[in-house]
Write a structure and sequence with these properties.
The structure is a single chain. The chain is of the alpha+beta class. The chain contains two helices and four strands; from the N terminus they run βαββαβ. The termini are far apart. 16% of the residues are buried.
Length: 86
Amino acid sequence: VVGDVTTPGIYEMTRRMTVNEALAKAGDVNRYGDMKNINVLRMQPNGQTAPIAVNIHEVRRGKAQDVFLIPGDTIVVPGNKFKTIE
């Protein structure tokens, strides 16, 4: 789990796990994280990495389905984009 989470790092999957559960293990999305634009990077058979978009905000509202992880997946939590006032 990388990006704007409380405790980024590598977490062992001891059982079947969803993105939401993995984020909970990583201390959840921090205040700078963009919950609507999370990506799971998954290695494809051809050796390329493909992103799987996850809107965890909608998952938690019951409006979208969570994604089950497989070994080797990387969850990327980007930061929110905001404008600075000058």
